[in-house]
Amino acid sequence: MLMQTHEARLDALRTELDKCGLHGFVIPISDEHMSEYVGSYAQRLHWLTGFGGSAGSAAVLKDRAAMFTDGRYTVQVREQVDGKLYDYEDVPATSPAKWIVAHAPKGAKIGYDAWLHGVEWVENAQKLFAKKGIELVPVDGNPIDAVWADRPQPSLEAAVPHDDTFAGRSSADKRAEIADWLKQEGYDATVITALDSVAWVLNMRGADVDNTPVALSYVLAHADGTAELFIAPEKVTPELTKHLGNAVRVRDRADFQPALAGLEGKTVAADPNHAVAGIFQALEQGGAKVVRDADPAVLPKAIKNSAEQQGHRDAQARDGAAVVKYLRWIAENAPSGEVDELTAAAKLREFRGLSPDLKDTSFDTISAAAGHAALPHYKVDEDSNIKIPPSSIYLCDSGGQYPDGTTDITRTVWVGPGEPTAEMIDRNTRVLKGHIELDLARFPDRTSGGALDALARMHLWQAGVDYGHGTGHGVGSYLSVHEGPQRISKPGGAFPGTETPLQEGMILSNEPGYYKAGEFGIRIENLVLVVDAKIDGSEGKYLTFETLTHVPLDRRLVDKSMMTDREIAWWNDYHAKTREILAPQLEGEDLAWLERECKPL
């Protein structure tokens, strides 16, 4: 019999823990690859608690349980998770390990799945637990899986080659670069576990995770340029085998852990930011010398070659035309008060789907009306769905996956009738000014994203307001919409990558915002490419940004009197370029709408 209530599921988990001799268990949102987005088979936290966010965890003891989320999910966690069953705890003020120390009895045995947690999380938890005589115990089989009767199976969709014309480099060339690094460092092999890294190294894509075209698999790359791919046999086609060639040995995914245990005497590198604790434990128990080092695919994957750069431009142009059709549809239909958030998101998917090149959305569309727009990571569902009120702000953050590029765009628009308030216009104009300041920035080569973050916030700060999320994240090439290592955010903040030097070829988002709780939210997001600034007489190399996203911005939310001549010139240049790129793809009323929205300010 299937358990329908979250209370019944929690009770069943506690019964299972008791059978295992455990006093508690920690449940993260994670899979065996420490992915940001995970397949339905790995959505254990959602099944147990009802929480649908993309970041969070839970700790369950015999008589108490808690949910741990950061400020992005303060409202959502309270809407989705029963407060009678779980305490609400804020990260980073506390953590599952700290909470367990405070509430578990001395000598308690706390279980964890070593294939879902990072090795550093395990080590830090062990140190905290030791102070109270609490033991952290790796489980043999996840106890949630034992009670989740209708748990989905991992996807068996076929893995497919990613054409070298889109990738810009062959897999053999990438593997040779990794082999050179291994030899230089004195390593015999490296374990590549991040799904987008596996996809990049092998020029392979898949359909195993919503929104991200990756295949569930691991790679063991060797210093001689060969590699072993561990993947379910059902996913391997003759086309893929031919694409991989003789230098890549294809093995069953089930052989991965035994293969790690068989590397006795070898020096093997693994990235603690991407490889779960179970991998480190299997290597160490098998007698390998384990070295913690960065995934060698992460940085070269982030630095897009010329083919990937052009692919992004082409994908953005295609995507921009779809978004223009959508914004015209919103402008004409939303003022009726009859269009709801889910219908709007579905309509945008329909417009994107007019392109035969669309493979998927790049994340779940944030279709946010009125007060929902004040939640930066709002996710509409049947329970939260509302109609877009007339005379309000509507925010839509969305993206598409195309073979030549991954898109991510946010537009904030006024839904009539009437005019936006003076406060709305002021806040939107300040967000716009920050967006422009960052877009026009010139900075020395290898400047960190953290050094640029204040440019996007400075005009908001002058009014005594700010936003709580980062300003920019990396974006992949037909891969993850959130890609490291680069990031633009406040130095010393919670986001990794802030100190990563920016280099030519990196793609990032530029997305400052403002959020007034319960009332409205604003975000303006384009993707940008780091390029040579070509400054005459510069002393050393300087970089700047090339804007990749071209879709009109809502002039009804802009106070021209607050803008400098430089900012107005940016607006007019941006919209002239937008018209130039998109007009050839549009006709009729869509083209007329574009022409109106792209007139000089």
Automatic annotation (TrEMBL):
Residue ranges of the TM segments: none
Domain of life of the native organism: Bacteria
Gene3D superfamilies per the UniProt record, alphabetical: Creatinase/methionine aminopeptidase superfamily (3.90.230.10), Creatinase/prolidase N-terminal domain (3.40.350.10)
Residue stretches making up the Creatinase N-terminal domain: 9-141
Cell division is among the record's keywords: no
GO cellular component terms given for this protein: cytoplasm
Domain annotation Peptidase M24 C-terminal: ranges: 541-601
SUPFAM superfamilies, sorted: Creatinase/aminopeptidase (SSF55920), Creatinase/prolidase N-terminal domain (SSF53092)
Domain Peptidase M24 per the UniProt entry, residue ranges: 312-531
This protein's UniProt keywords: Hydrolase, Metal-binding
GO molecular function, one term: metal ion binding
Keyword Metal-binding tagged: yes
Entry's family note: Belongs to the peptidase M24B family.
Protein name: M24 family metallopeptidase
Species of provenance: Qipengyuania vulgaris
Species lineage: Bacteria, Pseudomonadati, Pseudomonadota, Alphaproteobacteria, Sphingomonadales
